[in-house]
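Q: Joint fold for the lines below.
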Amino acid sequence: MSADNRPVRTLPIGVFDSGVGGLTVLRALRARMPCEHFMYLGDTARLPYGSKSPETIQRYSLQAAGFLMSRNIKCLVVACNTASATALPLLQQHFQSIPIIGVVEPGAIAGSNSSINGRIAVIATESTVQGGAYQRAIKRVRGDAQVVSSACPLFVALAEEGWTSGSIVEDIAHRYLDGLFNIADAPDTLLLGCTHFPVFRDALRNVIGEHIHLVDSADTTAAALKNLLEQQHLVTPSTQPGAVNFMATDGPERFARVAAHFLGHALSSTDVELVEPTFVAPA
Amino acid sequence: MSADNRPVRTLPIGVFDSGVGGLTVLRALRARMPCEHFMYLGDTARLPYGSKSPETIQRYSLQAAGFLMSRNIKCLVVACNTASATALPLLQQHFQSIPIIGVVEPGAIAGSNSSINGRIAVIATESTVQGGAYQRAIKRVRGDAQVVSSACPLFVALAEEGWTSGSIVEDIAHRYLDGLFNIADAPDTLLLGCTHFPVFRDALRNVIGEHIHLVDSADTTAAALKNLLEQQHLVTPSTQPGAVNFMATDGPERFARVAAHFLGHALSSTDVELVEPTFVAPA
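A: Joint structure:
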């Protein structure tokens, strides 16, 4: 039983991200687990995380996770690649009462499984690339892999602006990616190491060509979580479609507007709860 | 005398911005007042401000100003257009012991003075454009002015990335500006309503042509502050070059690296003090 006497398996799954990018992960989670309830928190008052220092990302992540814990969740998905890459072990150590998974390891598994030649390119935020979490995670899955990576901060701004195709996007993609792919022994796989990037799938395909595998962590994260819930007997008994509570630390109107690009359907600002940035202190 | 017994006019001038963009203003201030000391605070842990709500921008601005007040400054320049547009009256009301000036009114004066035909285009962040502060400020200076405006959030990301010229920048500028200028009775003046934007001067000139006046608020803000210090007998008596203390709420290394684009000279991360995000409570 949870603190409010509901059976734990009926509680919602918590999902947190620095903003709206994690909605690509939420979408994959709902597709695999349509009867689960979700609580999605976007830390829009302090986004983006990707250009900030590890210490600051860890502090923000602890606060966001602590806030979702205070709302009673049965598990937590860190949908933000930057937070997963920088703060996941800290969160797991801090909040030991529920399972917590990130998106880096599922992404590394997806990338490793897709690659034939073992050469994998990763694009992510500045902070994720500098921390090297994807390189390490891929090496753990596949010791012979060769990983190259590039920080693509402008993609985050483009996604937030809703510019997801066309010549400007492709020119920027060329500038970021040509150095990774126009080489001898080029990668055969491009791993999208930021939750904002799946919206550029078609544009990236135009730039890198048909023969490169394009993978993101959303679907493998959803598969990993489903597996975990089954193993730990945390699957909801409900057979009705689950609900989603959207929460943001700033600007529900803007959240709803930008979220539409990621969710693939409209969202009303009245469906987004503005939550206090004075988070509950972590346990 | 100040709280620490130094004569007030020998104290530094406080300058605050959401990040590094305000360094374009600092540069203009130093050019006009080379003997003054400055304290520059970039709130890098929470940047950018331009996509956030008025309430959040006001809260952050109060905290940043309160922090600089605690370090003993003789006046405060709100170098961030977004914070100036959204929080200046609140700051002036809250901290009545020192003069506080923003960049919106000086920018509006510069734009109004430059325009012959009275039609002025303003480009700024989302929040600044939505709040309408430039429109109101220009109308106060010049009642007959016609103001059109456009939010250009990608320029902020481009400036942070250091991509300040070339075809990508110009293509993005066309997308933002063509609608403002390719019309009958087009503006003759483009006001750069964000401190990040002066780095795009050459690229913007290529896009809008030679005949449009391009103005920013940095120099008029410096002129306004110099005038204010003279009137209030706050000019430093020193005839030696003044010092600058750089402070950031996150990532001194990144601050120093990106700052170089704005300062026009290199800066070492050891010259940037990391200050606690637990700001002193405002008075």
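Q: Anything notable?
A: Chain B has two domains: 8-102+219-274, 105-216. The CA atoms of residues 239 and 251 of chain B lie 34 Å apart.
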